[in-house]
Write a structure and sequence with these properties.
The chain is α+β, with helices and mostly antiparallel strands and 278 residues long. The chain has helices at residues 32-42, 75-87, 130-140, 167-171, 217-229, and strands spanning 2-10, 19-24, 47-51, 60-65, 70-71, 97-102, 105-110, 115-118, 124-127, 149-154, 159-163, 184-190, 199-205, 210-213, 236-241, 249-256, 259-264, 266-275. The radius of gyration is 18 Å and the shape is globular.
Length: 278
């Protein structure tokens, strides 16, 4: 049993500088156990499986698995899988817009200079209570007073967003992995204005089987919804992510007609066939 396979580098700013996603095509015949085993084997942040849609409004259906569990939505797998689907000859029903069916519902992906996903609605939002704030500070090894602001920005993976004083404070973090206790924490800090990027981001999600994710579209979507709506960020900016993992991710965030869009580079780096046991 073999399937077409692509590994797509997403959000990179040059060769092998983004976050890879493994994409398996025409995966309708695979069992959940086979999908989970392959996701553990690739050991990437996410492995995805392209299937026939069940919603007539969708162009394709996507299942998204980490090494530890399945996610209803994730950002870099959405863009990388859209890229792979187009590369395999997929033609969207609406020119210029792909519609992905996933656990979070329908997600629209726009074609342009870069593929850009529309941020899905948050399933959890609002302020962080004092007890959770103390847990977050312990996990990040910072004082609660060092946290400028925090907000739940969960669009599927469970993110809580944390704003620190600046980009340097984000870069300096050395988390205590044993203290996360199920938390998935996205941390952001502003760069000085006038540079290539405005926001520095890191994503810590040991509960998903990943200690630090290189470049994270779902987190960037939630941060964009939170920080542009509160005026801390302008409606168009570029965020950096991945430096601690020797990556150079660049995420382009734009608010279009009130809708946050997250865009980035997508490049196929590996293409071939993958064999599954029957």
């Amino acid at each position: 049993m073999t399937h077409t396979y692509r590994c797509v580098d997403v959000f990179g700013s040059g060769p092998l500088t983004g976050n890879p996603v493994a994409v398996v095509h025409d995966a309708d015949d695979l069992s959940e156990d086979q999908m989970a085993a392959f996701a553990r084997w690739t050991n990437l942040s996410e492995t995805t499986f392209l299937l026939r849609p069940t919603d007539p409004a969708a162009d394709y259906r996507l299942r998204i698995l980490t090494p530890g569990e399945e996610l209803p939505f994730a950002g870099h797998p959405t863009l990388g899988s859209a890229h792979a689907w187009l590369g395999a000859g997929g033609v969207p029903a609406t020119p210029g817009v792909l519609v992905q069916e996933c656990g979070a519902g329908l997600v629209r992906v726009h074609r342009g200079e870069r593929l850009a996903l529309e941020a899905p609605p948050l399933v959890r939002s609002g302020p962080v209570c004092a007890d959770d704030l103390a847990r977050i500070a312990r996990a990040l090894r910072v004082d609660v007073a060092d946290i400028v602001d925090a907000e739940w920005i969960d669009n599927g993976p469970g993110w809580v967003g944390v704003l620190l004083a600046d980009a340097a404070a984000v870069t300096a973090l050395r988390p205590d992995w044993a203290a996360f206790d199920g938390l998935d924490i996205g941390v952001a800090g502003l760069h000085a204005p006038g540079g290539e990027v405005l926001l520095e981001v890191r994503a810590f999600c040991p509960g998903l089987g990943i200690t630090e994710d290189p470049v994270t579209g779902s987190l960037q979507a939630g941060l964009g919804q939170w920080l542009t709506s509160t005026g801390r960020l302008p409606p168009s900016y570029v965020a950096a992510q991945g430096a601690a993992l020797h990556r150079r991710g660049r995420v382009h965030v734009d608010v279009v007609d009130g809708q946050v869009r997250v865009a980035g580079s997508t490049v196929t780096t590996v293409e071939g066939r993958v064999a599954f046991a029957t």
